[in-house]
Design brief:
CATH class of the largest domain: Alpha Beta
Order of helices and strands: EHEEHEHEHHHHHH
Structural class: alpha/beta
Distance between the termini: 34 Å
Strand content: 5-15%
Number of strands: 5
Strand order of the largest sheet: 2-1-3-4-5
Shape: elongated
């Protein structure tokens, strides 16, 4: 019996430049893992599709907001990657607030884009130094006013360590770690920056400069 083939990733594209949609469709037509299932100049064009990952141009000609587009994409079951030229920090900040998984510049190689799609589909968060800089310098982000110990816990926990390892590193009990995480979530919620999931907590840590997002490899 032959081994089962890996499931193909159902990719969507939202970009109002036809040359981008066509070029990516041609490239991924022969890809072994990634299949373009839908491509549209507007986010509403993905309605009814079941997708895994969507590449979203942050500046569309229909005047729609980044937040509304990410919400529309979420209804397809997909995770959003900002696929952008990256020159507008306000768009990047809006994408970060909408909890996209990260960004890939359109100037990056196709190999880097493929790597980013695979990473996001595997549940990882990606980013670039300029993306991290844009969101960490957001003047509209209210402070959660974390204590020094809460920051130490957040740095380790949001970076991916399990609570038991955080406890061992800081010489505290796992229950104390859990209590700190609850307190951190509560403070972010009070500041209007909810962090109910670990991914959202990671985003808050990146926004506040406590964690640096990994960068998709270009090799």
């Amino acid at each position: 019996m032959s081994p089962a083939l890996p499931l193909r990733i159902r990719l969507g594209i939202v970009d109002d430049h036809e040359v981008v949609r066509h070029g990516l469709s041609v490239h991924f037509a022969v890809h072994s893992r990634i299949r373009i299932q839908a491509a549209s100049p507007v986010a509403s064009g993905l309605h009814g599709e079941l997708l895994d990952v969507v590449l979203l141009d942050l500046r569309l000609g229909d005047g729609s907001s980044v937040q509304d587009n990410v919400a529309a994409i979420a209804r397809t079951g997909a995770t959003t990657i900002a696929y952008t030229s990256g020159e507008n920090p306000d768009h990047l900040r809006a994408a970060a607030r909408a909890n996209v998984a990260g960004m890939v510049r359109k100037s990056e190689s196709l190999a880097a884009l493929e790597q980013a799609i695979l990473m996001v589909h595997a549940g990882e968060t990606l980013g670039t130094p300029d993306w991290a800089s844009a969101i960490s310098s957001d003047p509209d982000l209210p402070s959660a006013r974390l204590s020094r110990r809460e920051i130490q816990v957040l740095e380790l926990y949001a970076a991916g360590l399990p609570a038991s390892d955080v406890a061992a590193t800081l010489f505290i009990s796992p229950q104390t770690v859990a209590d700190h995480v609850k307190g951190i979530r509560r403070k972010y919620r009070t500041a209007g920056r909810g962090a109910s999931t670990k991914l959202e907590l990671f985003h808050r840590a990146v926004e506040d400069g406590y964690v640096t997002p990994p960068t998709a490899r270009s090799d």
